[in-house]
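REQUEST FORM: STRUCTURE PREDICTION
Request ID: SP-0412
Submitted by: Lab K.M.
Chain count: 1
Length (residues): 170
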Amino acid sequence: MANKLIKSNLTGHRDISGNGGGPLDPGKYATKQELHDSETRLSNQIALLEAHLDTKFEKTNADLNQKMNNMDAKFNHRFDLMDAKFDQRMNEMDAKFDQKMGQMDTDFNQKFAFMDAKFDQNDIRFEKVNTHFANIETEIQMARNSMIKWYLGSSIALVGLVIAAIHYLM
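STATUS: Completed
RESULT:
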C-alpha cells in the first residue's frame, strides 16, 4: 500500500479523459482490505508504542524514585552527621561549662572558707578585747572599792587619832 491514494467516496470516478464509472486502478488506489490492514497495523504499532512509552515512563519514574531515595538517604546521612557533630559540640560546651562552674564553685568555697576563718579570727579578737575591757572594768571596780575602803579606813583612823588626841589633851 505504499504511496497509494485513498479516496473517501469511490463512486463517480473519472479517468483523465473524463470517462467515468469504470473500475479503480488497484495500483493507484488502496482497497478497503488494504486500509483495514493498515489500520490494524497502525493500531498494533500505536499499542506497542504506548506500551513502550509506559515502560519508559515506569523505568524513568523508578529511576527518579531511586535517585530521590538516594538523595533522601544522603540528606539523612548528612543531617545525622550534622546532628552528631552538633551533639558533640554541645557536650563539649556542657563539659567546659561544668568545668568552669566547678572551678568557680571551688574558688568561691576557698574564698568563703578564708573569709569565714577571718571572721573567726576577728571574733576571737573581739572576745579578747571584751575580756580585756571586762578585766579593766573589774580593776576599776576593785580600785573604787579599795579607795572607799582606804577612805573609810583613813577616816576611822583620823577619827580615832582625833579622839585619842582629845583624850590625851583632856
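NOTES: Residues 50 and 165 are 164 Å apart (CA to CA).
Reviewed by: T.R.
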